[in-house]
Amino acid sequence: MRLWSTAFSALLAIVLLLTGAPSAQAQVEEQQAGQESEEQQPAEGQEPQEEEKDRPPLRIWWDDGLRFMTLRDHFRMDIAGGVQNDSAAFGSTEDAETVVGPITNGVEWRRARISARGHFAKWFEFKFQYDFAVNSPPNLKDAYLDFTLPYFPLQMRGGRFRAPISLEGTTGAMNTTFMSRGLISAFLPSRNSGTIIHGDAERMNHRWRWAVGFIQPESEWDIGSTDNMSVSARIAYAWHPWRADTLWHVGIDYFRRYVDETVEYLERPESHLAPQFVDTGEFSAESADTAVLEAAFVRGPLSFQGEYAYTYVTRPEGYYHPRFNGLYFFGSYFLTGETRPYDAANATFGRVDPANELFGGGGGVGALEIAARYSHLDLNDRDIEGGELRDLTFAFNWYPTRLSRVMLNVIRAKLVDVDPVWIAQVRLQWTY
Question: Is the pLDDT of residue 6 over 90?
Answer without folding.
Answer: no
